[in-house]
């Protein structure tokens, strides 16, 4: 089961949902948390994701994979807190 944890009692912002949907489609995660940590303005996100697609990849390559999936979105952000693992 994949969970989206947002800052407002299990609701999500449109941007959090967009990120969640893009990563879910490409990485089939076992677990994922996406949170707008910018105070609600959509300029910084924390993403914690576990996926079998990361197996055998270094942390740098895992992060590059996520960055590639989100490259169009990242251009609009001030920052990204990213935690990846293969389980």
From TrEMBL:
Q: Which GO terms describe its biological process?
A: protein maturation
Name listed for the protein in its UniProt record: LALA0S14e01266g1_1
Report the superkingdom from the record: Eukaryota
Q: GO cellular component annotations, sorted alphabetically? A: mitochondrial matrix
Looking up Pfam families in the UniProt record yields:
BolA
Identify its protein family. Answer: Belongs to the BolA/IbaG family.
Organism ancestry: Eukaryota, Fungi, Dikarya, Ascomycota, Saccharomycotina
> Which organism was this protein described from?
Lachancea lanzarotensis
